[in-house]
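FIELD: query
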Amino acid sequence: MLIPVVLAAALMNAAMVAASAVSAILIADDLGPALAGLPNTAGVLGTAVGAMAVGRWTSRFGRAQALRTGYGVGVAGGAFTVLAAVGAPVALLFVGMFLLGVGNAASLLSRYAAADAVPLAQRARAMSTVVWASTLGAAGGPFFMAPSQSFASGFGLPAIAGPFLLALAAVFAALVASTYVRRTSSTDSPQVRQATGGRPVLLAAGVMIVGHLVMVSVMTAVPVHTHQHHDGLGLLGVMLSVHTLGMFALSPLTGWCIDRFGPRVVMLAGLVGLLVSAVLVTRSGLVFTPALFLLGYAWNLCYLGGSAQLGSAELESRVESSIWTVAALATASSPWLFTLGGFPVLAVVSVVLVVPLLVLVTRRSELAVAAR
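FIELD: result
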């Protein structure tokens, strides 16, 4: 069951990356550059809403059917984006991106389906494998965008329709792969629910949400920072690539650490990493880019460490929806905070958010050790 889950997640991620990249270009040409971010905003909102929907479908129909339904909605979204690209009303693009976001939510929550397919001791590694595979889709998808333009032109279609066709094909392939996901008899993991009480679960959710908030806030400001310092797009690309590697490349190591040392230790490491990286980005020079790598990996530790503590489909979907809602808020507020005082202001906000969680997780870890 693990292979189709991983394959579908990678394909869906490739579809989302391809559609997101060209949707901004299409809107910039049709409605103006000021509105170019609206399609991706629709995708983020679709992911937030989709996370709640997939959670409900999981509770009602099981994980396998929920994933298939989510990817099916994504196929419809991909079709709408193609129609918009070939001359249909541009409003269909926003609808399409929203529906693709629902498919993206299914991809994100599929890590729990992978966890259900393995013994409890291997749960974290299974989830980390899905997260790592998503990176392959994100990295590989853009390489097919230029050939897809030539493919579309060869059939007399606008060249910009090519990447949308690529996205449609990828999400359809994800749907096909999801048909091989085994149906599970339970929507929750009793072993995980027994191992984690209410407070640890809520604490884990807080770690995941705050980790995402800090990461998005800092990274949204990075392009503004490089522009103010007259750095070229080449250097910005290196910074973003290094950060992305930090987010995903070491996911298998994170999974091994969770299985070996437990989620609390990994979440503690993630919170400390958030603090250190938030402070380091206030310093220019050679430490800046490594700090972005650390920020990415700290997010990974918080995200996977917290995920290992969740054992209910309802909780999983609520947390994922909250994460993407927070992403929208962080994206909107970060530039404003950055103009007030640069990275030092963002660092102060990060400290205010992270330190209370760090204290709570440390205290719970000490109580757990004492109980033994």
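FIELD: remark
The longest helix spans residues 313-371.
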